[in-house]
Write a sequence for this structure.
């Protein structure tokens, strides 16, 4: 399996290295990966089943991402 997301978005993340990139597609599974220093996260969804997925993200001004957890409702 390979990423099929926007190459322009990936290029911007790789160039500017934000602390975190939050993304979402209703037809993709949840996942997270690092692109350089950036943690990119897609909580995914099961839209057809009425399940909304999200993310709890704990940020620190000095340390960046301290923790994260997928949630659903």
């Amino acid at each position: 399996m390979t990423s099929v997301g926007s190459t322009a978005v990936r290029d911007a993340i790789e160039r500017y290295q934000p602390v975190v990139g939050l993304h979402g597609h209703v037809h993709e599974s949840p996942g997270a990966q690092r692109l350089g220093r950036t943690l990119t996260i897609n909580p995914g969804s099961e839209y057809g089943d009425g399940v909304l997925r999200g993310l709890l993200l704990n940020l620190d001004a000095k340390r960046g991402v301290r923790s994260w957890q997928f949630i659903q409702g």
